[in-house]
């Protein structure tokens, strides 16, 4: 009788042990990257006008120019192509990214 109790106890421990429960959990699903959300940077190729206008120095006119001149292969094209002034670019360059260049 004692051996049967040990076997039952051993089986119960096996099914409730952390090792068993970890083996039963599903593997994590791969994350699809959000448009620069993980980095906290705003993707100038996908941002909407309101998101662009939230950047310092960017209003309606600059937001429209940014959108009209997409896609950008690098964020510094905002200044090098004359989309926004260099001083404005200097104020936002650490807040933006040109993560991907979608086709028009």
Automatic annotation (TrEMBL):
Pfam families: HHH_3. Residues 1-23 form the signal peptide. SUPFAM superfamilies: PsbU/PolX domain-like (SSF81585). This is Helix-hairpin-helix protein. Gene3D superfamilies: Photosystem II 12 kDa extrinsic protein. The keyword Signal applies. Keywords: Signal.
């Amino acid at each position: 009788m004692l051996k049967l109790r040990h076997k039952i106890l051993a089986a119960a421990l096996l099914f409730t042990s952390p090792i068993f429960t970890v083996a039963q959990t599903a593997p994590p699903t791969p994350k699809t990257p959000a448009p620069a959300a993980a980095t906290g940077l705003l993707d100038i190729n996908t941002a909407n006008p309101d998101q662009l206008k939230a950047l310092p120095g960017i209003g309606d006119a600059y937001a429209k120019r940014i959108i009209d001149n997409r896609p950008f292969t690098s964020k510094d094209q905002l200044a090098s192509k004359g989309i926004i002034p260099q001083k404005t670019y200097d104020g936002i360059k650490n807040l933006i990214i040109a993560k991907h260049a979608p086709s028009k």
